Amino acid sequence: MKISRSEKIFNICNILLMLFICVITLYPYLNQLAVSFNEGMDSMRGGITIFPRRFTVSNYAAVLKSADFLGALFISVLRVIFATFISVVVVYSCAYGLTRKGVPYKRGITLYLMIPAYINAGVIPVYILYRYLHLMNNFLVYILPGAFVFYNMIIIRSFLQELPASIEESAQIDGANDIQIMFRIIMPLSMPVIATVVLWVAVNAWNDWTTTLMYVTERELYPLQYLMMRLIKESETAQQMAVQATMNKGAAIQISKPTSESVKAATLIVTTIPIIMVYPFLQKYFIKGVMLGSVKE
């Protein structure tokens, strides 16, 4: 089919726009990747684009040589696995129950579950509650408080409501009970939206470090993100002290080669690589799940 001139112009503009968006999206990450592989003192001069000027791996050595690194990595991976599994089970079960015919007071239950999503008691009452529940310095503090997310439940419920009722009726005629219908019929059809929620929960569990800051003091329970945050702060403090000493004494003091900026860049790459590796496998489910599981009433 012949393409008109206006369509050709539109296609060219569309391609150029997409290329521009790709450039402005990828450049910051590629720049940080280059800084992470560049010598720290040289990076302070600026001018790094997407290629390191003085290649080195000392920045990653500074990040990975921490004695607690492997333990923190294990805690983070364990947290993502358990938090994602439990959250998906809880949210999916709740959403499935609220779509069943004959369940009384479904609107009232939904309203009751919605209230905490908009009204929060605050940090101090939550801290006291966690203390009485013995969640302080407990691995379960990473899992139980975030097991139910109202928004995720609404997304799954909306998706389930779009499935044809004839599927369930056919399964009932064949003698399947509610549990069999849920696990053997409905759940396989719900994989797009489940994959979407899995991605959301996993990314949130992987990136979160504020929970550790407020409720955990034992180093054995530090996740990787909190450990990296402490490493960045320590690097910044050491560099500021060196600069301040130089200004006070009037003499040059050598600053460690892995500067705070280079350590930040290396930390960014280390903490984002797992998500970048997983996302391509869930991308198609993510897009489909968002489209099909849009919030509706």
Task: Please tag this protein with its features.
297 residues; MetI-like fold; mainly alpha
Mean pLDDT: 82
Which word captures the global form? flat
H/E topology pattern: HHHHHHHHHHHHH
Radius of gyration: 25 Å
CATH superfamily: MetI-like
Beta strands, count? 0
Percent helix among the residues? Answer: over 70%
Query: pLDDT below 50 for ≥5 consecutive residues: which ranges?
Result: 293-297
Give the name of the CATH architecture.
Orthogonal Bundle
What structural category characterises the helix and strand content?
Answer: mainly alpha
Biggest sheet, open or closed, and with what strands and sense? none
**Number of separate helices:** 13
Tally the structural domains.
1
CATH classification, class level: Mainly Alpha
CATH topology: MetI-like fold
Distance between the ends: 42 Å
Estimate what percentage of residues fall within beta strands.
under 5%
